[in-house]
Structure formats: structure tokens, C-alpha cells
Automatic annotation (TrEMBL):
Residues 115-220 form the Tectonic-1-3 N-terminal domain. Part of the tectonic-like complex (also named B9 complex). Belongs to the tectonic family. This is TECT2 protein. It comes from the Eukaryota. Keywords: Cilium biogenesis/degradation, Glycoprotein, Signal. GO terms for biological process: cilium assembly; protein localization to ciliary transition zone; smoothened signaling pathway.
Length: 658
């Protein structure tokens, strides 16, 4: 046992059974435990035995009654070493001096690291961190105990320091509260020391260090947590000036209109606000025990002008629940309890200009029983009143992050195309994998597994892999903008394909069985975009170019002891990378800037073009009036030194003294 208490059970009738505990010692000559008899009691040293009788089972509890805290200075009844208790116990169950059961316990218990002593009421005097270090050992966070990896902690004994001596905290946190700084004359930390360093270095003690006050700023303030409400604008005549993209939709009670959504961690949040013009489609797993009703459909929504609109709700019943419900195999319930719950909610918000004109809600109801897991689905779609195309967002034709990339196949009669990546399911096989659209601004990496036999022909394997990768890109062009028209070719950019070379003529598979070189197993999609403007403060992002390339691998059959009649696996992947470039190319450097780098302030410590920077308006270290006064004084001293160094001044000075 390693804790102060341990439980065991005595099986059988405990009436007339006497339980006792004995501290056992080891015979130094034989190394064996001394024989125990039934003459013990329920207390032995610092140990106590307690028995809770039952019907056919009795609970036996052995507990330690001593203190397990490490000893502080001038303290008693404590542990002098970290390994506080090392003892051997024997628990006996006897009836009429006959041993019925015997339990041997080896106890090795360490002292507690938490501090439970009396806290002094004397106020701690905190030094002024501007002039003195706030603490000589910042990593000493626990009073009366050793902090791991804190080598400056005085509570750490030499034995404990050996456990983490090679991984101690470094820097100011590890106790080096006065490190030598770079401007110190005795510091040799700089790899390159300029020639003027001995003339301008600082000769000072380490007590006067720029690291003072590094951890503690000095001023504290009580944080003000904003409430889960935002006030509406109360200008006369209009209570609200309309929604912009990303603004939360408000209700009549001046609260957020919430629908369950997925968080960054992948979990569903029940009270997530709905953002204007941001569609989503989420699934949330729940069961009957944890099911909760969402926001009531009687809540009226603020249209954006101070008026309130009612939700148009249509209820439908789902009879085939196979797409929503799965059985929990870990639960086996005799009596099944069922309840009518919401399976899905479909919201369609119709907007015009900056206002919400109408809300249509379709609620799908079904029966959920105990032992079943429900995949609730919530969809929100914003649709323009003037057009059924929901991708036209308040006049912003550019892409928004999270929207599908628009593709087209200009070589087919039906110009609609697709640009997808895999969405594996089950075992991750390519035969079971589905596809999902490429979302703008989100780098993605997915793949699936292809089963390959040992007698697979390399040419056929290359063709099969290439066909599966090409099935993801059923397009020849990609829309520059989210509202690209299929009838205007100028709204599209052609996909640049770097197809793999002809394997049949350039690659020889050889006579090696189970090895195929140059398999195009990786599809790389690179999309270049830029910010070409802004509409109502929202950046307009357009796609400039799309490139598709392949990466080849060497496939080798993997098998165990027997390779016959078995299959191996070939993982094939697809990656999407979005690269942002400036809308306009940067201004090229002049020949002077390329050749004379000593005048480049970004690559040199000395910046001559900024010699008079303190006298400009860009310098904010001091008030401008003080900078101007100091500059004029400095100019006067320079002028005075120039005059006094002139020979005629010395002649004039000597003549005035005569």
C-alpha cells in the first residue's frame, strides 16, 4: 500500500471471528517474517483496524493515524524524511485461536507535499519591485514543500534535487533574478561586439538590472466580465441600424438568438449565438438522459430596424430514424422508456439589405428511447430576398472563410464542377470513403487506404491511384469570387495541372515482386488568393491561381511470416494549402538599397537615416516640447564648441584678457 488507508474483504460468516493487526519484523538471520498468533488487537503502533460486518462479506479497513507532513523547523509529530513509513503488517482473522485468514501488507508511504500548517497572520512585506527583485526564487510556489525542477527551493533536500538536477528551471523563473544584461561591460554574451561597445557600455553592479519588475507590473485592477447581452442602439427614430456580416442576431428580449453549434474543440455548445450571414450545418450527439430542449420557437427576432418578426415553424414527424439514431451497445435496459424529442431543426433566414425579413423553421420530431444515441442536426441558411442564390452576401462578391470553393468544368455541357477531399469512414478504406468540398481559407489533409495484393501490376496500380485522385477534382476552372457566373469565363481561373509523367514508357517496374516505384500517392492542391478590396469593412478575397500536383512514393508489400493470399495497404492522401499573397507586387529595391546595405535600418544596429528621430513627431518617448528643447540645447552646445575651436576665437579671448 502507498496511501494512509486500504480496504479488504473477508468472505464468509464473521460471527465469532476475532480480527487483529500485528506489526511484523523480519528475522535478520533467516530473512523471514516472524510467525504471528491470534493474541493481537485492533491497534498496533500508528495503525488502526476497523471491521464493518455484513451478511456474507465483512469490510476490513486498515488506516494510519499519524501525521504525514514533512517536518518544518522546530516541529514535531511529522516526517523527517520523504519516505515517511516503511513497515510490514499482518492482519489475522481467528476463531477460537485458529487462524482462518491471513493478510500480509507492505506499507511504503511518502510524506504529503501539500502544506497544512498554521498560516501566520503577520502581513508579508513585499519589496518595491522597481528597486529589488520581488522574489529570489520565483519557482518556489509551495510553502513547506519541494517544488519539482526548482533548484533554488530551500525545502528541496539534496536527495530530491538529484531527481531533477539536470532539468532545473533556467532564467529568471529558475532563480537567476539578476542575470547579466547585454549592455554590461563585463557581459560577453553577444556574438558580435561592435568597436564602440567599450565606449558606450554600462559599468554597474548586478543589483541595478533592467530585469527588475519583469514579473510584476505593479498595478492591479478588478476584471470586468461583460454580460451575455449587448445593448441595442437607442438613437431617436431607429432602435437598430441593421446587421452586418458576423453580427449576432438579437431577440426581442435584447439577448442573443442561440442555436446549438460546434466549438473549436469539436463539442456542441447549446447556447451559441447565430452570426449574421454565416451558414452552418452541425450534428450533436445526445441521449435521452442528457437531452435538453433548445430555445423556444415563440421567441421573436429583431429584424435590424427595431421591429420584431415571428418564426414560421413547420413540424414534421420522422418515421425512419435509422439516419439519426444508433443503439448504445454498453447499455442493456429491461424496461425501455421513450420520449418524443427534436431530431433536427432547419432554419432559413431571408434577408434584404441589412435587415432580416423572414424566418422559416422546419422541426423534425421523432421518438428516442433509453439506450439509443441521437445525432441531432441543426442547419442555418441565409438567403437573399432578391435572389435564391444564398452566396451573395450584402454585395461582397469575395470568398469568406469556411465557404466551399466554387468549381466548374468548362469542357462539359454541364459546367457544374467539384473540388473535393476525402472524408474517410469506418476502416478508412477508399471503397467506403466519401468526399467533402474544399472550404476556402482552411488548410486540409485527408486520405484513405487502398488494398493492394502482392501480385499487383505496377502499371495498373499507378493508373488506379491516379484515377482515384483525379476523381476528387472534377473541374477545369475555379471561380475567382464566390458569385462567379458560369456564363462569364473571365470570372474563372484555369487549374494548372502538373500531371505525373507517362509511367508506361518512363518507369520500369523490373522483376521485383511486391515493389512498385513512383506511385502518385499524394495529391497537392495549392490555392493562391489575395485581398483585393473591402466591402463595408469586410475584406474581399479573390482566388488568383490554383495548382494541382502529385507526389510519388515507393510502395512495398508488407506482410508477416506468410505473404501468400494476403493484401497490403497503400495510403493515398490529398492536401489543400491556401497561400495568401499581396494584391499588388512589392516595390522592387533600388540599386542603391541593394549595394549599400549599411544604410538599411532593418539590417543594421546603427541607422543613420534616423539620426534625428527624437526630434520628429514619430518619437513618443517624451513630450514633443521637451524633445525640441533638448534638441535646441544640443545644437547650441555643438555651435558653441565649433566657435571655441576656431583660432580667431582664441586670439579674441587672449586680447580681451590683456
Amino acid at each position: 500500500m502507498s496511501g494512509p488507508r486500504v480496504n479488504s474483504f473477508f468472505l464468509g460468516n464473521s460471527s465469532g471471528v476475532n480480527f487483529s493487526i500485528i506489526l511484523s519484523s523480519v528475522d535478520e538471520e533467516t530473512g523471514k517474517l516472524q510467525l504471528a498468533n491470534c493474541s493481537g488487537s485492533k491497534r498496533a503502533g500508528d495503525w488502526h483496524l476497523n471491521v464493518t460486518p455484513g451478511m456474507n462479506t465483512s469490510k476490513v479497513t486498515i488506516s494510519l493515524t499519524r501525521n504525514l507532513q514533512l517536518c518544518l523547523p522546530n516541529a514535531t509529530d511529522c516526517c523527517t524524511t520523504p519516505l515517511c513509513v516503511v513497515e510490514t503488517l499482518q492482519v489475522l482473522a481467528c476463531r477460537d485461536s485458529v487462524v482462518l485468514a491471513h493478510l500480509l501488507i507492505q506499507a511504503e508511504i511518502y510524506a504529503n507535499s501539500s502544506f497544512r500548517g498554521n498560516v501566520s497572520e503577520n502581513a508579508t512585506i513585499i519589496p518595491n519591485q522597481v528597486f529589488h527583485p520581488l522574489g529570489s526564487c520565483p519557482c518556489d510556489l509551495t510553502a513547506g514543500a519541494c517544488d519539482v525542477r526548482c533548484c533554488c527551493d530551500l525545502e528541496c533536500t539534496p536527495d530530491l534535487k538529484q531527481l531533477f538536477n539536470e532539468s532545473c528551471f533556467t532564467g529568471v523563473f529558475g532563480g537567476d533574478v539578476n542575470p547579466p544584461f547585454d549592455q554590461l561591460c563585463s557581459s560577453q554574451s553577444l556574438e558580435y561586439i561592435p568597436d564602440w561597445f567599450p565606449f558606450l557600455c554600462v559599468q554597474s553592479s548586478l543589483n541595478n538590472t533592467p530585469f527588475l519588475g519583469y514579473f510584476y507590473h505593479g498595478s492591479t485592477s478588478i476584471p470586468r466580465v461583460p454580460p451575455f447581452k449587448i445593448p441595442l442602439q437607442t438613437s431617436p427614430g431607429r432602435l437598430f441600424t441593421g446587421y452586418r456580416q458576423g453580427d449576432p442576431i438579437m431577440t426581442e428580449e435584447n439577448e442573443y438568438f442561440t442555436i446549438p453549434q460546434q466549438s473549436m474543440a469539436g463539442q456542441c455548445v447549446g447556447n451559441a449565438p447565430v452570426a449574421c450571414l454565416q451558414n452552418f450545418d452541425v450534428k450533436c450527439l445526445t441521449n435521452l438522459a442528457s437531452y435538453k430542449e433548445g430555445l423556444s420557437h415563440d421567441v421573436r427576432i429583431n429584424s435590424g430596424t427595431g421591429d420584431f418578426i415571428q418564426q414560421n415553424v413547420i413540424y414534421r414527424t420522422i418515421t425512419n430514424t435509422g439516419k439519426f439514431v444508433t443503439e448504445d451497445e454498453s447499455l442493456h435496459i429491461a424496461e425501455v422508456l421513450c420520449q418524443n424529442v427534436t431530431f433536427a431543426e432547419d432554419y432559413t433566414l431571408i434577408w434584404k439589405d441589412k435587415n432580416i425579413e423572414q424566418i422559416n423553421v422546419t422541426v423534425f420530431l421523432g421518438s428516442l428511447c433509453d439506450g439509443e444515441i441521437l445525432a441531432q442536426r441543426f442547419t442555418v441558411k441565409f438567403q437573399s430576398l432578391k435572389s435564391t442564390n444564398a452566396t451573395v452576401l450584402f454585395g461582397n462578391p469575395g470568398y469568406q472563410v469556411g465557404k466551399p470553393v466554387k468549381a466548374a468544368n468548362m469542357n462539359a455541357s454541364d459546367t457544374f464542377g467539384s473540388l473535393n477531399i476525402w472524408q474517410p469512414a469506418g476502416r478508412g478504406l477508399c471503397t467506403l470513403a466519401t468526399s467533402t468540398p474544399v472550404l476556402f481559407g482552411l488548410d486540409s489533409f485527408s486520405g484513405c487506404i487502398l488494398e493492394v495484393g502482392i501480385d499487383e501490376d505496377c502499371s495498373l496500380l499507378r493508373g488506379n491511384v491516379t484515377e482515384k485522385l483525379n476523381s476528387l477534382v472534377q473541374a477545369t476552372h475555379v471561380g475567382k469570387r464566390d458569385n462567379s457566373s458560369y456564363s462569364d469565363l473571365n470570372d474563372w481561373v484555369e487549374i494548372i495541372r502538373l500531371d505525373p509523367f507517362n509511367f508506361d514508357t518512363n518507369v520500369s517496374s523490373g522483376n521485383l515482386k511486391g515493389i512498385c516505384p513512383d506511385i502518385p500517392a499524394n495529391l497537392n492542391i495549392r490555392i493562391i488568393f489575395a485581398d483585393v478590396g473591402a466591402v463595408q469593412g469586410i475584406p474581399q478575397q479573390d482566388i488568383l491561381a490554383v495548382q494541382i500536383s502529385y507526389s510519388v512514393v515507393i510502395w512495398q508489400f508488407q506482410c508477416g511470416l506468410i505473404c501468400e493470399n494476403s493484401t497490403s495497404f497503400l495510403p493515398i492522401t490529398a492536401s489543400v494549402q491556401f497561400i495568401k499573397v499581396p494584391a499588388q507586387p512589392p516595390v522592387p529595391l533600388t540599386r542603391f538599397q541593394i549595394n549599400y546595405t549599411e544604410f538599411d535600418c532593418n539590417r543594421n544596429d546603427v541607422c543613420w537615416p534616423q539620426l534625428f528621430y527624437p526630434l520628429t513627431r514619430f518619437y513618443t518617448g517624451e513630450p514633443y516640447s521637451q524633445c525640441l528643447a533638448k534638441g535646441l540645447l544640443l545644437a547650441f552646445l555643438v555651435l558653441l564648441a565649433a566657435i571655441m575651436s576656431n583660432p580667431w576665437f582664441s586670439k579674441l579671448w587672449n586680447s580681451s584678457l590683456v
